[in-house]
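Proteins fold reproducibly. Next comes an illustrative record:
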Amino acid sequence: MYFVIRRSSNNQYYFVIKSENHEIVATSETYIYKASAELTIDSIKREINYNSDVIDTTV
């Protein structure tokens, strides 16, 4: 499982959780600040798998 941070059409941030075979498992709500999305990802990683990769497509 890994996370991909993206930007929505209204310039807010969201992330998708993808499985090892690259299928989307879940999509988050949108966040005004990228830091908010990152904090949510960290929270999920603590509960599931802290070694999950995060790919930031917004940079």
User: Anything to note?
Assistant: The chain has one domain: 2-56.
